[in-house]
Each structure stands twice: as C-alpha cells, then as structure tokens.
Design a protein that fits this description.
The complex is a heterodimer of chains A (267) and B (217). Chain A has 267 residues and is α+β, with helices and mostly antiparallel strands. Helices cover 41% and strands 18% of the residues of chain A. Chain A contains eight helices and seven strands. Chain A is elongated and about 80 Å long. Classes of the chains: A alpha+beta (267), B mainly alpha (217).
Chain lengths: 267, 217
Amino acid sequence: MPERSVHPDVVDLAEYAEGLLDAARQADIDHHVRGCPDCAATLSDLAGLPQTLAAAPVPPLPPDVAERLDRAIAAEAQARASSWSGTAQVTPLRPRRRWLAPAVAAAVVMGAVAVAVPIVLNDDPGSDDAAGEMQSGAEAEPAPEENAAEREGGSADGAAPPAELSSDSFGRDVIDNFYAGSRDLRVARLEALTSSGPSISPGELGKLPDACDRPVLPDGTVDDISYDGESALLLRRESGKAVDVVAYRCDGEKPTVLDAVTLRPRR
Amino acid sequence: MTDTTPDDAELLARHVAGDPNAFGVLVQRHRDRLWAVALRTLGDREEAADALQDAFVSAFRRAESFRGDAAFTTWMHRIVVNACLDRVRRRKARPSEPLPEDDDRMEELGETLDEDPAAAVEERDVVLKALRTLPDAQRDAIVLVDMEGYPVEEAAKILGCAVGTIKSRCARGRAKLLPLLRHLRSPDPSGNPADGQGVAPSRVTMLDDTKRGGGDA
C-alpha cells in the first residue's frame, strides 16, 4: 500500500468518527482513509455498530424476576397505606367555602375524622364551631360517634369492633362491614361519611387536580380540614358501592396525598 | 378497574392520588424494556433484578417529584440507570467480587424462552457477552447511546459527565466491540462497504456536535 502513514488502529478510527482527535490527527486519518479500502471498511463497520446494537434482541424478563417486582411493589403499597393511616392526626375544622351544602359540610367533618388512625379528636380548644357544624349539618348520625369519641379518645379497644379492617391486595386500607353503632370510631365515622356525603355522580369523582392553582376544586372535594396540624383538602371518590376517601394538601405545584382509605359497605 | 386504557401520566397521577393499583400497571407496562437496560448495564442477572427492584421502589416513592416535562419512560430510564450505577459503585467498593466471567452464568443471562427463534437467542447472547468485555464506564455509555438511543447530551446528564467523555467512551467501547460483533451487521445493500460512504449520517451529525461540545470534555 502506498500510504506513507501506518494504518490507524480501531480506537483511532472510532475516535476519528466521533471527531474526538485534534485537528492534525483528524486530517491525517481523513487522508489515509480515502486511500485505504481496509480502513474505510472498518470505519463503515464502526458506523454500523450502533444499529447492530440497537437491533439486538431484548433479553426477556424472567418470570421469577417479574413476580419479585410485583411483590416488591405490593409491599410498597402496603407500607404506604399503613403509614398513611397510622401516623396522622386529623382535626375537623369549620368548613370555609361558601358553596358547601350542609351535607357536604357534614362530610367535611366526618371525612376529616375518617382518615385518622388512631383517631384523636382535637376538639377541646376552640372547636365548638366544628362541633356545632357537625350537629347542624350532619343529620345522619353524628351524635353517637361524637360521644364515642369522647369516651374512647383515640383508642379502638374495648368491645371488639365488628367491622373488619384489612388491606386489599395492594395494601390499601379497606374497611368491610362497618356500621354506625360501632365502637370503632374510624368505622363509625366512615359509615356516617358514606351515608351523608354530597350527592355527586360517581363518574365525576376520583380525580385530584393536576395542578394546585385552579380556582375551582374538583367535584367531591371538601375543605378545610386540619391534617397533622396543617390545612388540607378531602376528596371523596365513589367506585361502585365502595368509597375512597383521600386527604390531600395543595400548597405546592401539585397535590400531595396525605392519607387514603377505601370503604366497603356492610354486605 | 379502569374502563379505558390510561396513559402513563394518568396512571402516575392516580398513583400519587392514592390509587393502590396504578403503579403496578406502570410496572407491568415497562418492566421488560427496563429489564433489558439493567441486564445489559450490569451483566449479571441477580444484580439486574436487584437494581430494577430498587428503581421501581424508588419511583414508587418519588412519583410526586415527576414533573411531566419528560416522558415517564425517560424519567424511569434515568432511575433505572442510576440504580445500576449505584450497584456498579458498590461492586467497585468490593473488589473481591468481580464480574462473574464463566459461561454458565452467561447461559443464565440469556434465559431462553421456547418461542424465541434460535438465531435471535444466539445474537442476544453474543451481544450480552460482548458487552461484558467492556469496562463499566464504556458499557454504560454504549447501552444508553447505542442501544437505548439516547442523545449524547442526555446520556451525559444521566451519567453525570461531559458530552465529550460520553463520546470518547462510546468510541472506545465500539472499537472493542467491533471484532466481536462485526459479523452481526446486516449486509450492506451496496455490497461495497469500501466505497468511502462508511460514515453513516448519524455519525456526521455527531461530528458537528463535537465542535460545540468538545470543549467541555
């Protein structure tokens, strides 16, 4: 071969193709490649390599790894559900929005309590408003639970609760067989919530706002509750006979879910 | 539980809103592709499974930080790649556990399924094996840029280094892979690879990029 320069090695050619070499070396190889079919062929093969790699068949996900991922995510959902329901302290506040119907106002109070486990009613200081609101707004059955709240003060022991607190397959708290007379405060409150909440067609429920700067809250939203001492919103979502209750905060760009529970009426 | 098929963003929003099933749907939708990334990057079945699990759990917890300015798949890719890099770093901190080299482990990687055409299985294994000959840094760059099709700039962001560094790692990685994978190249329709047109259009574009990005290498 008549070239004065020796053949560049493959690394040189690959770096040349990426334009990584200094100008003199780049020109040198450029000159060489024009007169050297072998190096031109190597350069061509290098250029084709990304296509070969991109077209390489995808290794299939082994079934046991797939199962493992499902289990991990289920465990994560379980942990999330229990942290939502296990740490919060929710205090009902007076509803603030003028458009709230009395029934909705009831749902505010009920719902606020509904997401608390353990339930601690912080209605000692200056909460007469909230209590009054509850009495006037909720015609369902607020009084027995309120009394129960005073008696039990957050503990759900005593008589064994007939309702069943469990988790669904993804760890979401689910309460089955709840009824109003239960000594389990959470169950009783949730019962009240489901029986006296606003009447909104189920199809319109269930979507949190995707941004927090909207002037109008989505249907099914009630405010204002206090959640762990912070102002929060409550969303009721009906799906079939079950009801999801979600407490969320909307003080950043996007809503932050604080707590959620799914209720299933007594069979 | 859903009437129509929600897109990724909708599923993620539902997950953030407390839907206990939404994230599982996302996982099932994308896990195959992300498995390929993890396996190719780490070259080890168990480590890839660990990394993928770490990544999905991390995404589950960080879902609220997803801003929607990138596709969910891009966001998820980044999390998977970072989970893999974490494992690579840990591996480096334990030099007594080098990459397993024996062919028995390689057989495992392929995980042959009955319906795979034999040729595809062979090509897959050849590619995986070739990738394992690369140093970690070169393999990370090649997987992202050449296999997953990330722009060099995006890969640089994911891997936390300069654009020029990514290009250099890709170039060196390709030089090492070429003798191992040259035979897989689909036949050149012109039948004459030495006609001076070997540089594909994408390479030409990258040459132009270099003039802008080469300075920060």
